[in-house]
Design a protein that fits this description.
Two copies of one chain form a homodimer. Chain A is of the alpha/beta class. Chain A has helices at about 10-20, 25-40, 40-45, 50-55, 60-70, 75-85, 90-100, 110-130, 130-145, 155-170, 185-190, 205-220, 255-275, and strands at about 150, 175, 195-200, 225, 240-245, 250, 250-255. In chain A, helix 4 (about 50-55) packs across helix 5, helix 7 runs antiparallel to helix 8 and helix 8 crosses helix 13. Chain A is elongated, with a radius of gyration of 26 Å. Chain A starts with 10 loop residues before the first helix and ends with a helix. The interface between A and B is large, with 68 and 71 residues. The structure holds a DNA duplex.
Chain lengths: ~280, ~280
DNA sequence: TTGAAAACGGAAGAAACGTTCCATTCCGTC
DNA sequence: GACGGAATGGAACGTTTCTTCCGTTTTCAA
């Protein structure tokens, strides 16, 4: 029943396909195809009229090109150019849908796979979006601190707890504000301007973390915030902030990117101090 | 003639702009803005109607948002999201080369990449090696427990700390043996045969974890062990054990696979109890 | 509790878009 | 040099999309 030869749906395949068909194409269609491969970004987001002007052809030529090489229409062809831009971006939701499609009822292996995918997506995204200069600035800030006060509650408490371990291993003095005995306020009150507060919080931002961070900020203690959006209440208090967007699976959010980030921070700060004291 | 305050035309500027303005925005507009920053690729590619559905708002809300923050309309705002993708994601290898190009000596970006790779390797290995039947057995054991006692120290303390959070969210009763006040022995002494001990330990096996696990085992409390080899001292005490081999980067070992595993355990146990109680 | 202003949802309207169609031009062939 | 088919330019069509408008709900202050 497949009466139609399938056409490539990815950009690489399209390039190969066009390479073969190129010589058999009429002049204008060749011109349009040439432009498309040369300016894929313009094709991805432009309208037919806009692209036609840039390519020096008529709008109808673009539609003809798409149909000549087997697509239903220009919009159909354009999807390939858009997919190319998406490709660099791990499309996590697509993966998740694929997971769900395997079987209706959930089971442990499926969940494990799901959480793994969420973790990998988070890590890839972190690598793609984090600004290296901000990361350097964060390391500089932490390296100059006398004591680093670690602030993070509930879901992200494991992150700060790990930081306490990792910094200690690197010879960096920390205070984990764990709020044991409801002494969080007293713990953070020990922070002085020569110190640094490292606060971690993701939406919905835990009240106590935000409050304690505000207390420290009011006391003039510089802050590094690790949070998930520019809307975070921590952003306005922080001297430096790093954005980490973790992927969800079900009701739970990955912590993989957060851990990779703080591990890198801990090692970098340790190295910088080592170098400074060398 | 510039009667209008200029609005950011690049994504970074937009983030900053929204971060400042977000407090003044009404609820729905905030919701839409949040979605936009969280799913920028959806905004870049989608139509107003599609995006509105995903964001859980009306199409008109998206237009209002764009106008509220100074753009002429939604299409105008959308250009910013498209420009972000046009700017071009340097592909994976380019990024890696750029990282290495900074210099031969280690730096934060390189460490971040290293920890990410270690995490991904750990996750992939976990998925490939873990026996699904053992995983099912682990879930069965935990689902039958009255109280789950969580045992894990030093490097893996974050894992058990997270489990305490995750299990609580799933309505499962736990006791985190955190050894606060050196009361670890008393904490684990509360475990009874109807309970289960979930012990996590990797080489070099922390002494106190092994000792506390042994105490519980001697008292006839069944144990699920998460550890890194068949030679682990926990294996002989455990009724069920799961092997997790984390990859190293430098002096630090990833925790990504451990977290993915325990998240899957928590969700599966919660679901199994839900099903059992109908 | 009441009233006014802001925000919201939904549908109608306006604009833009992709596609199709037809007349004209170009090119190879007889 | 004339013919026929393919290719092209340009306009019109129908659909989709964005925007605007208005009645209702919500929110905040008096």
């Amino acid at each position: 029943m497949s009466d139609e030869p399938t056409v490539p749906r990815d950009f690489e395949g399209l390039k190969a396909h066009l390479g073969v068909a190129h010589n058999a194409l009429p002049k204008r269609l060749k011109q349009a195809a040439d432009f498309a491969l040369r300016h894929p970004d313009d094709v991805a987001f432009g309208t037919v009229a806009e692209i036609a002007v840039k390519a020096g052809v008529q709008p109808s030529t673009l539609v003809r090109l798409a149909q000549a090489i087997g697509y239903g229409g220009f919009s159909d062809l354009q999807q390939v150019f858009r997919a190319r831009l998406k490709a660099g971006w791990p499309d996590y939701h697509t993966r998740l849908e694929a997971l769900k499609a395997v079987g209706p009822e959930p089971h442990p292996g499926l969940h494990l796979h799901g959480f793994s995918q969420a973790a990998i997506a988070s890590l890839e995204r972190l690598g793609a979006t984090l600004d290296p200069h901000r990361l350097d600035a964060a390391v500089d800030l932490l390296a100059g601190a006398d004591t680093i006060h670690l602030l993070g509650a509930r879901r992200v408490f494991p992150v700060t707890a790990y930081l306490a371990y990792a910094f200690a291993k690197m010879g960096v003095r920390t205070q984990l504000v764990d709020n044991v005995g409801s002494l969080g306020g007293e713990q953070i009150a020990a922070a002085r301007p020569g110190d640094v507060v490292l606060a971690v919080s993701y939406a919905p931002y835990t009240r106590s973390t935000v409050d304690l961070a505000a207390t420290a900020a009011a006391a003039g203690v510089p802050m590094l915030a690790i949070t998930d959006s520019a809307f975070s209440p921590l952003v306005s208090m922080a001297r430096v902030w790093l954005e980490v967007a973790e992927a969800d699976y079900g009701a739970f959010r990955s912590l993989a990117a957060s851990f990779a980030l703080v591990m890198a921070l801990a090692v970098s700060v340790g190295e910088k101090r080592e170098a400074g004291q060398g």
